[in-house]
Amino acid sequence: MRQNTIYLCDNKASDKQLTERNSNIELLRIISMIMIIMSHYNVHNKINTFSLPLGFNRYILEITILGDIGVTIFVLITGYFSIDSSKPFKIKKLFLLVSQVLFYSLTIYTLFIILGIESFSTKQFIKNLFPISFEMYWFMSVYIILYIFIPYINKFLQACQRKDHLIFILISLFIFSFLSTLNTNRYYANELIQFIMFYSIGAYLKRYQNNIFKNQKTNKIIFISTTVFLLLSVFLFDLTGLKYTFISRKSTYFFRRPKIISILFSISLFNIF
């Protein structure tokens, strides 16, 4: 009886921890959404950030281009919570994802036509009718492909020993992140390869809780260091750009999705939550 009581108490404690963790992750999702919204505003508004004179306004616009970091965090979360699943993807959930994208695609397009923002075009209508196939919203196109492959990625990662899983991540980071940080080459990487890499990292953090980022002190050092680096990099690119104009247009270089600094920042922020 005593053992059963202890077991029930432990379950309650675990449920509480799980609820708190999920609440933290939901908050992180919201923050990631805000990052993406800010980035879209900066990229798609009528202000040419790089044509602005150096100053506070330009600097704020530059350091809030956080969309790539927000996307990285989303995929890390997916890997963290999906790695334990070995079941085939659910057709019902896949249909739901596609139908949601289709709904917003057609609704927004129809609204734009009614408001006179766009004129009707058969070609554009077909694209909005098949938004995933025509990559109208690149994130969802890539995410749905990732979702289809998740059961098979999981089988591969679950079959790996910890050392092999880590080596797979390190090789991926070296080729598709570290090397592409040193220069502008992508080394044949695309968004799907990046997503698989981020997914694998999220899965590793879940499977092996005892990792470098779980050390609170180390994680804080990585988070603070990458934050300072990102903020300083924008300032230094802008400053150097006074003499070499083309450099000022690279001010958000390290904020981009495959760059090693933005990945380390994303992982450390994820672990904080």
Notes on the protein architecture:
- The protein has 11 helices and no strands.
- With 273 residues, it is mainly α.
- Helix 9 (216-241) packs antiparallel against helix 11.
- The protein is globular.
- 24% of the residues are buried.
- Mean pLDDT is 87; it is low at 1-15.
Task: Break the fold down into its secondary structure elements and pairings.
Elements: H1 2-44, H2 56-63, H3 67-82, H4 91-114, H5 122-129, H6 138-159, H7 162-182, H8 191-207, H9 216-241, H10 245-248, H11 260-272
Helix pairs in contact: 1-3, 3-8, 3-11, 4-6, 6-8, 7-8, 9-11
Helix content: over 70%
Specify the overall morphology: globular
- Class based on secondary structure composition and strand pairing: mainly alpha
Gyration radius, rounded: 21 Å
Order of helices and strands: HHHHHHHHHHH
State the total count of DSSP E strands: 0
Query: How many helices does DSSP assign?
Result: 11
Number of domains: 1
Distance between the termini: 37 Å
Strand content: under 5%
Q: Would you identify the regions where 5 or more consecutive residues have pLDDT less than 50? A: 1-15
- What's the overall average pLDDT, rounded? 87
Biggest beta-sheet profile? none
